[in-house]
Amino acid sequence: MGNENNGEDKSLPLFEIPFSRRVEEGWRHFLEEEAELRRLIDGKREGDEIGEQLEILLCPIFTEVYAEVGFHEGKYDLILNLEGDWSRLFPLVYFKKQAPKEVLEHWNILVGRQARDEESGDFQLRIEEDMVSAGDFQVWTDWQEKEAKVSVYCEKLLPLLPEREGNAYWIVYTMLDYAVGELTEMKYVSGLELLREPKKESALGLSELLSHFMERLSLSREELFDAERYCNLYTGYQMKPDEEAEDGLRRDVYVGSGSFLPLLNEFWRGESRIMDTFHRDGIAAGYFCYPLYGFQGEDRSGQILDYRDEMADRIEKTAGEKSFAFIGGASGIYYGYLDFIAWDLKAVLDAAVSVFGESGIDWVMFHSFRQDAEGITLFEKEQL
User: Fold this and answer.
1) Using DSSP, how many helices (H) and how many strands (E) does the chain show?
2) Which long-range contacts does 124-130 make (Cβ < 8 Å, 24+ apart)?
């Protein structure tokens, strides 16, 4: 299903069908057709048939999506995987949160490949004519604060090295996902090494790895698997500002925080893979830029942060959480920045004009997270 934006405008991507509407219509369609998917699961039909039905149900919403299904404790599972790409997290969590209660009567909607519970027994993956199982792996971890470098030895994977090393690593990452959960692996595993021979030190088994991570991180199983929690993990950063930069492209930033740093990093590098993916699905992401010269006094930094938080809260209330998601912000020498994802950009921009206009600020600009885009002035107060 295509989702062309009006005029393919990268600077002002007002989509004909924004993501919020795609999700709303998609869940309505899912509700009409999901009985067939349950029938296929009950009948233990071939994976291709189930995959085709999943494509019918999900592709009108997402240009690209990776999903699995299952049945657990009396309900069906729809598992939406990230496949190692953090940019999928926010849209998938949004999609999950909009699930109608009628869908939830039969389905658990899960974000991230799930760890197998103890009742599932020894989990396995097929390698051509052979099978590899959790018991075939030995694991060692090297922790640096809240991240672990993981070393793995599996004798059955050695024939894949070195010509098919990529396949071997895919198998290891998948088995780690089944051991600790995909979100845990992506967030807390900083590096992975596939060993040619085992270490002399005592090893962990894959079945022991989840409890090991829970202990080291002081997090429960539920916290590790809670996708929404990862959307609300903010990281602070500092930068060396360019004192000559007054173009609103964030080169004057000296401090900030964000929950979606991969998006910011792409913007600073002049790349647009995430934004291209978002635009194909009717999602916009950008920031509001506004002047800081009106903030004075001893607690100037506190005033700036309070103002940004207040604007974010009021925009969310005005546009609605179905349209707007706050993902952080930054302070520069000249400007303040409020970062967001828009599930419906028109609703967000309309709310921003109203909210910023009432706040007394002199002007505000919208800029997409693309360096090849132009800033769009939303309003400018007339000077007397």
Assistant:
1) 13, 15
2) 125/171, 125/174, 125/175, 127/156, 127/157, 127/160, 127/171, 130/156
118-154 pLDDT, tens digit per residue, is: 555 567 777 666 788 999 999 999 999 999 999 999 9
> Kind of pairing, strands 335-342 and 324-332?
antiparallel
pLDDT digits (tens, 9 = 90+) for 291-306: 999 999 889 999 999 9
Tokens of 375: 């800033």
Residue recorded with tokens 């007394």: 360
Q: Which of 277, 368, 364, 379 is nearest to 9 (CA)?
A: 368
Annotate 206-251 with three-state secondary structure: HHHHHHHHHHHHCCCHHHHHCHHHHHCCCEEEECCCCCCCCCCCCC
pTM: 0.92
Q: Which two tokens stand for residue 76?
A: 């069906």
